[in-house]
Design brief:
It is a single chain. By secondary structure, this protein is an alpha/beta fold. The protein has 3 domains: about 200 residues, Phosphoenolpyruvate Carboxykinase, domain 1; about 270 residues, Phosphoenolpyruvate Carboxykinase, domain 3; about 80 residues, Beta Complex (Phosphoenolpyruvate Carboxykinase, domain 2), CATH 2.170.8.10. The strands form 6 sheets. Strands 1, 4, 5, 6, 7, 8, 9, 10 and 11 form a 9-stranded mixed sheet that branches. α11 runs antiparallel to α12, α11 packs across α16 and α15 packs antiparallel against α16. The protein is globular. Manganese (II) ion binds next to loops.
């Protein structure tokens, strides 16, 4: 085998993987256009990709996954630390030795007859001191072309890896896609990921959830920063001033839509800029401000529901240079999905003639992969090595009732409790029942690579270090009336709530003190040009003390399941809110 890197540790690892998996060829990815074209042509030949209508969707392709491989598999995702307590009750755990043995048996000979791709990648701007490196080895060309859009792959990343010597090792094989032989395993102490038996995004594009959240959250705790499941946006007012906000919502709760928000007619001169739609890495700077970078360079977004009205930026950007996974097709060979509002399905996501009796035409978790630069609202500051200063952190979830449209935490420690209390109705982004409320602290339940109790302590530790931290808020776009109708119009109108948040950060807006935190006063949210009744606004901003007492009791019980490791400060915050609710 020819030597292909000057870094002995990397070469030794690649050699050992090749010995185990026995590929026919080994290809080191340089990330070039020519390489990408070659891989796409090869996948067109094998049927892994289908070309879409080149007139209306130039450079766009459809990939159909195996029907049993359409979402993350949390029940097969493990964090393998030496001590079980370090993984915590929030993770499935396996002892590292046992996990390696189990998964290596599945890698044995897994790449026979296939090409093994070695993908050096950089999470974050290539010159950023906050960026981190990784190498993914995979036998899937689909993974290579997706990683190329989602991260920064190739020669520059390899150079930095060789310079620094440290990188996350990610080994992936699609195996035979047998759900019985599928595992996603993380070894944070070894900076290693092993994933077998799935080709789906979150399971196979190892730079994303596996590295940038699970492994990175562990590294961040050790090194004093934060790896979070947050979008990053810039909100520009008519004076040209920009505030940056980071928002943590669970998967498929509208992070991509919010990150690409278009100001409504009523808001001339306002703009939202996208820095990221899924992951933020936050570091404290010399002044004590939190700065955010987006470690990714592309979007892996939910397709259904995307249209001219809900997200025009996304709708426009996915009309070129996009890989679609598991959408339907029109008779004109254009991609189609539920709520696209144009065209009609002819062939469903499984390639069958469309028949409404078979369910939705596009899979509810069908996805687009596209480079961030195609977004008309893309902020070039996404390339800034030191990222952007964050004014507000916003938590949210999908809650039919209870949670008001927006409220603000009293201070950082209370904000950590608000984050720890996040709950949301489940979506199609993960395998399992959809629509049941589950606790999802900081929207990190599936992604925190260590014990939540330690994670909350890490969050609280920032409060001791700086007085210039972002303010913390909670939003809920999904509140419904008794008939199941959404009370808030959402989408572009969410800008009105973001404005209230910015005004609070700038200390130019009052608030009323409700037991759970600060809520907008009547008139606090600008409703000009919006047809919404006072009754509806009252309902959206109501706090029902008895329901909240029940909620906080449930939060208390949930936190208790993490036992002795739960920081006393978090329990004290919880006790404070309960007391305030009892007095309310
Ligand atoms: O896990 S993915 O990144 O594939 C999708 C999601 O759940 O956000
Ligand atoms: Mn996500």
């Amino acid at each position: 085998m020819t030597m292909t890197t000057s870094l002995a540790a990397l070469q030794a690892w690649v050699d050992s993987v090749a010995k185990l998996t026995q590929p026919e060829n080994i290809h080191w990815c340089n990330g070039s256009d020519a390489e990408n074209k070659r891989l796409i042509n090869e996948m067109l030949r094998t049927g892994d990709l289908l070309e879409l209508n080149p007139k209306t969707y130039p450079n766009c392709y459809l990939h159909r996954s195996h029907p049993s491989d359409v979402a993350r598999v949390e029940h097969l995702t493990f964090v393998c630390t030496r001590e079980q307590g370090d993984a915590g009750p929030n993770n499935l755990w396996m002892a590292p030795d046992e996990a390696h043995a189990k998964i290596d048996a599945l890698f044995d000979g897994a790449m026979q007859g296939r090409t093994m791709y070695v993908i050096p990648y950089c999470m974050g701007p290539i010159e950023s001191p906050y960026a981190r490196l990784g190498v993914e080895i995979t036998d899937s060309p689909y993974v290579v072309v997706n990683m190329r859009m989602m991260t920064r792959i190739g020669t520059d990343a390899l150079k930095r890896i060789e310079r620094e010597g440290t990188f996350v090792k990610g080994l992936h094989s699609t195996g035979d896609l047998d759900p019985e032989k599928r595992f996603i395993m993380h070894f944070p102490e070894e900076l290693t990921i092993k994933s077998v038996g799935s080709g789906y995004g979150g399971n196979a594009l190892l730079g994303k959830k596996c590295h940038a959240l699970r492994i990175a959250s562990w590294q961040a705790r050790d090194e004093g920063w934060m790896a979070e499941h947050m979008l990053i946006l810039g909100i520009e007012n008519p004076l040209g001033e920009v505030h940056y906000i980071a928002c943590a919502f669970p998967s498929a709760c509208g992070k991509t839509n919010l990150a690409m928000l278009i100001a409504p007619e009523s808001h001339k001169g306002w703009r939202v800029w996208t820095l990221g739609d899924d992951i933020a890495w936050l570091h404290m700077d010399e002044d004590g401000k939190l700065r955010a970078i987006n470690p990714e360079a592309g979007y892996f977004g939910v397709v259904p529901g995307t249209n001219e009205k809900t997200n025009k930026n996304a709708f426009d950007m996915i009309h070129g240079d996009t890989i679609f996974t598991n959408v339907a097709l029109t008779a004109d060979n254009e991609p189609w999905w539920e709520d696209k509002k144009v065209g009609a399905p002819a062939v469903d996501w499984m390639g069958r003639k469309y028949d409404a009796a078979n369910g939705p035409a596009a899979h509810p978790n069908s996805r687009f992969t596209v480079a961030a630069k195609r977004n008309p609202a893309y902020s070039t500051l996404a390339e800034a090595p030191r990222g952007v200063p964050i004014s507000a952190i916003v938590f949210g979830g999908r809650r039919r009732e209870l949670a008001p449209l927006v409220y603000e935490a009293r201070d950082w420690n209370h904000g950590v409790l608000v984050g720890a209390s996040v709950a949301s109705e489940t979506t199609a982004a993960a395998t399992g029942e959809v629509g049941v409320v589950r606790r999802d602290p900081m929207a990190m339940k599936p992604f925190c690579g260590y014990n939540f109790a330690d994670y909350w302590a890490h969050w609280l530790s920032f409060g001791e270090q700086s007085k210039l931290l972002p303010r913390i808020f909670h939003v809920n776009w999904f509140r419904q009336d008794a008939a199941g109708k959404f009370l808030w119009p959402g989408f572009g109108e969410n800008l009105r709530v973001l404005r209230w948040i910015v005004d609070r950060c700038e200390e130019r807006m009052g608030a009323r003190d409700a037991a759970i935190g600060y809520l907008p006063e009547p008139g606090g949210i600008d409703l000009s040009g919006l047809d919404i009744s006072t009754d509806t606004m009252d309902a959206l901003l109501s706090v029902d003390p008895s329901k909240w007492q029940a909620e906080m009791a449930a939060v208390g019980e949930y936190i208790e399941t993490f036992g002795d490791r739960v920081p006393a400060k978090l329990k004290a915050e919880h006790a404070k809110i309960l007391k305030a609710l009892n007095g309310a």
